[in-house]
Amino acid sequence: MAEAVIAGSVPTPRGTVEQRVSAAQAAAERVSRRTRWALIAPALIVIGILGIAPLIIILIYSFLKPGAYGGVIPEFSTNAYVQFLFEKDLFDESYHFTTAHFQIYARSLGLAAFTTIGSLILGFPTAYFMATRPAHQRNFWLFLITLPFWSNLLIRTFAMFVLMREEGIVNNSLLYLSILEEPIRIMYTDTAIGIALLYSFLPFMVLPIYASLEKLDFRYVEAAYDLYATRWHVLWRIIVPLSKPGIVAGCLLVFIPALGAYVTPLLVGGGKSLMIGNLIALQFAGSRNWPFGSAASLILMALVMIALYVYVRYGTRKSGFAHG
Amino acid sequence: MAELAVHSGGRRIAARKFDLRRLHGFGTIAGACLVILYAPILILFAFSFNSSRSVNVWTGFSTEWYPKALLNDKIWGAALNSMQIAIFATICSTIIATAAALATTRTKPWRGMIASYMTINLPLMVPEIVTAIATLSFFGIIAGILGTRLGIIQIMLAHTAFCIPFAYMPIRARLEDMDLTLEQAAADLYATPWQTFRRVTLPLLMPGVIAGATLAFVASFDDFTITSMLVGPGETTLPIYVWTSIRRGISPEINAMSTILLVISILLVSLSFLIGRKKY
Amino acid sequence: MLRHALCMTAAAALLFASSAAYADGELHLYNWGDYTNPKLIEKFEQQYNVTVTLDDFDSNDTLLAKVRAGNTGYDVVFPSDYAVKILLDEGFLAKTEPNKMENFKNVDPPWVDVYWDPGRNYSVPWQWGTTNFAVDTAVYSGDIDTLAILFDPPPELDGKINMQPEIVEVIHAGLRYLGKPLCNSNPEDLKAVNDLLVGAKPHWRTIEYAMIETLVAGDVAASHGWNGAAMRARLQKPTIKYAYPKEGVAGWMDNAVVLADAPNMENAKLWQNFLMDPENAALISDFAKYANGIMGSEKFLPQEFATAPEIMMPANAPAPTFQPPCPQEVTEKYNQIWTNLLK
């Protein structure tokens, strides 16, 4: 240590060694900072223009009044937000608290949670299985998993519909095998929406987990077995924690879009109950209340942003490098 | 299959065959997953041979829908549009997402990193219908300024934007925990940053990039809400065509066309797979 | 991998850039899905040497939202009656004056002075029809000419009914059933219709547009919907019968209008004139099975079309009402009822 201190303060023509090292480091810092900004700039620009600008428009809309037949009138009003919580009684024009919108949000949250957990239960083993195939087989499995998604989702959902109907194949075979006495009525219920959402979002769970698991170092696993761990231990204490980034990525990629899903509930849900996406779409369509639609979306986004922020601040692994 | 030789007190106990990668039941679940994924496809395929107009009720075998599908310009126009847009959006968004992932992962926290992360994931958080209406208004204003519509570029740009987070997530997941030492080693060997990236980082990152690109492609190809708002003359995409057909009665022609598309994509991917293999 | 992707993009671009173009320009149509006879388009293309493109929308609301954003690129769109009124009042339509066009004499007189465009200065009739409901008589064979089928159904139909997801249509059907005026802002009437709908909802199975498929497949046995769709369903399943409820019948007419910012104004006017020819009108009706507003087209249509029960209303059925759009306060109340119904 003494040598290091002496060496650091040894003068050279361009300053001490220490000074030269830190100067070099600072230069490297500047270069890497510039590279960083250059790397991230395209993403920020594209999303800035096509994501943020439209959002600002929506924010403005939410504080305006609805036009008679759709659109907005440039007059300030917070009515849209009030409308989320309070509605005018039909008779006496007084405002009273309404849970209608909460119920719709709660239903969507429940379905999105179901979809996420379901696709995790199905997707994790599948991703693991794919990642543990011999290297030359993996591309084939990847191909196999993604191939169904080369055909259009709407048509496939319709095909699911065919499967799930009372006279559908699933029911028919179960009836034929006398396992059931009456056909299961899934169609047009919330369960049907959940199943259809699960089906649509499965690859969004499998692929990130696969990407994460594929580089899993199995020497950790081997070490655990050497220490007499059971398979269960190995799974929960080694494999899952090591694939956490993939799992989290998958959950986010499933939960958030499922929350705002619009087309799938419309196709298989039967239309008797609204999800958030349908409620918002309705405001821009038949209900002709653009401000309220904008307000409802901003409220949804706020909820999601809180969850995301919590993840970023507290959920990332502390490994000396923090990930943004 | 690794043979685990168990030592005990210096003596070698009989080795037992033990696949340390295998977890019970996972193969079965993977199989179940595949069944779930493919069952509707098989239904689709089966009903493309239905002899009546229904896609729900089987009435008999007929191949009449395939010639109809092959000759239907509208469906093909729509499918082609979807392909074009999806390919453009996938390429652009994957490149942008890779760059963004490199900038935001495995570094010391820099000012604006969290904000950047939130921005990148913004399209995911906004409900599609909101993005649809907002982007429509936005492009309406632009078109007003320029005096003319931008055409299919509008849809391509909008898709690129929302595909970025889809591509970003798997790439980032892959990048996290990737060993920095390999890249440091490359730097020690006098590799420039670009060389390091091309020869070391990118190949290691490739499964993540492929996963990201695939997700982006799926997201774009299947998108309905945003596209339906932005679409203009002659730009109808497949999901929109299917949706409006549903309103007035869907027919097995669409099933036939989906099957044809599926076969084409199998051929394309197999082709590129074979071409890729020849390198080694 | 990048190379392959680039190749594929190039191939796609080449494939895309190959469409025959006619000499005299283009025409861009925006219509309901599966609603335009391809033969009609071909005939127009041959006759005037114009390339026609057709895009689809699924509801008047989508159309309104699109047009409102401006610069759609479309020349001719096909809104329903109330949507024409909205577009007109907000200044989105071009005054093409069909009443001065050559074929205007063929327009059936009842369709000339309509509430949404008196004297026809902007719009041309496309197709018209009624919105009631169709019942599978194999499931229920009693009297179907009453809205009680939808709101107070017999046990055979309980749980097997579909309603259209149109706020105004459903609420107005309820108001008709209760015998109250339409576009109603009277709190008592609204309360009554609210209770009616909430009480009827458990008897319904779905609230969606897919009428033909679900009726034919048997998922529902009665469905709120349009007469042409009912006819197409009946052609697949003969037991399906279209009802004309004695409490009142809802009518609508889709029209061809030209947008004020249409890029191909002259071709658009040619199209409007083209639609008023009886032979072309027959082509229109033959496809989606709705009546049109042009005299003399029956000559060119199959015999059974004119006498079909969905087209020819029975003598004792009430005349269809064409309802103008309701004022804003009424729409707000309707929305409230609807949201509460669907929560």
Would you mind describing this structure in some detail?
- The complex is a heterotrimer of chains A (324), B (280) and C (343).
- Chain A has 324 residues and is mainly α.
- Chain A folds into 2 domains: 2-62; 99-288, MetI-like fold (Orthogonal Bundle).
- In chain A, 70% of the residues lie in helices and 6% in strands.
- Chain A contains 14 helices and 6 strands.
- In chain A, strands 1-2 form a two-stranded antiparallel sheet. In chain A, strands 3-4 form a two-stranded antiparallel ribbon. In chain A, strands 5-6 form a two-stranded antiparallel sheet.
- In chain A, a hairpin with a 2-residue loop joins strand 1 and strand 2.
- Chain A is flat, with a radius of gyration of 27 Å.
- Chain B is mostly helical and 280 residues long.
- Chain B has a domain at 71-249: MetI-like (MetI-like fold, Orthogonal Bundle), CATH 1.10.3720.
- Chain B has helices at residues 26-47, 65-71, 73-104, 113-120, 122-125, 128-146, 152-175, 180-188, 193-221, 225-230, 238-248, 252-277, and strands spanning 2-4, 7-8, 11-12, 16-18.
- A two-stranded antiparallel sheet of chain B has the order 1-4. In chain B, strands 2-3 form a two-stranded antiparallel ribbon.
- In chain B, a hairpin with a 2-residue loop joins strand 2 (7-8) and strand 3 (11-12).
- In chain B, helix 3 (73-104) crosses helix 7 (152-175), helix 3 (73-104) runs antiparallel to helix 9 and helix 3 crosses helix 11.
- The longest helix of chain B has 32 residues, at 73-104.
- The two termini of chain B are 26 Å apart.
- The model of chain C is unreliable at 12-20 (pLDDT under 50).
- Chain C has 13 helices and 12 strands.
- Chain C has 2 domains: 23-128 and 252-307, 3-Layer(aba) Sandwich (D-Maltodextrin-Binding Protein, domain 2); 130-251 and 315-342, D-Maltodextrin-Binding Protein, domain 2.
- Chain C is an alpha/beta fold and 343 residues long.
- In chain C, strands 1, 2, 3, 6, 7, 8, 9, 10, 11 and 12 form a 10-stranded mixed beta sheet that branches. In chain C, strands 4-5 form a two-stranded antiparallel ribbon.
- Chain C has helices spanning 2-16, 38-48, 60-69, 81-89, 148-151, 167-178, 187-200, 211-217, 227-236, 265-275, 278-288, 303-307, 328-342, and strands at 26-32, 51-57, 76-77, 113-114, 117-118, 123-136, 161-163, 204-207, 222-226, 240-243, 249-258, 320-321.
- The chains are: A mainly alpha (324), B mainly alpha (280), C alpha/beta (343).
